[in-house]
Amino acid sequence: MASDKPTMILKSKSDMSAEEIEALSDAEAWKIIYSMRTVKAKDNRLQVCFTGFGTSKKKELVNLAHDNRFKVVASVTKKLDYLVGGENAGPKKIEKAESQGVQCLNEQQFSNLIATGEVPDEI
């Protein structure tokens, strides 16, 4: 017989009868529970992080990014695609991004990326 926790989960999350659940071992019950879990869809959107902008400008850029199917994140990670820096962008954040191979853009380059899908070398 399965212990209390898997029994409770199966009663609430499955169509199994009490008798069917009672006949299961702990291992069998957990196997059923894990098989019922839905796999989260992988988020394959391009990631962008904004730094060095005032509150209203950053909000505007975040909305623009969301409208164009970017995933906006708050920090530099290995999965980050673009770091968009404003006038007050911190050198440590830029340095970390460059060391991880993240492409650093200014606001104009980001706007161009949205408009054309291309990033010019210099603006």
From TrEMBL:
Q: What is this protein called?
A: BRCT domain-containing protein
- Species in which this protein is naturally found: Oceanicoccus sagamiensis
InterPro entries in UniProt: BRCT_dom, BRCT_dom_sf
Domain BRCT as annotated: residue spans: 39-117
Q: What is the lineage of its organism?
A: Bacteria, Pseudomonadati, Pseudomonadota, Gammaproteobacteria, Cellvibrionales
The family database entries (Pfam families) matched by this protein are listed as: BRCT (PF00533)
Taxonomically, which superkingdom? Bacteria
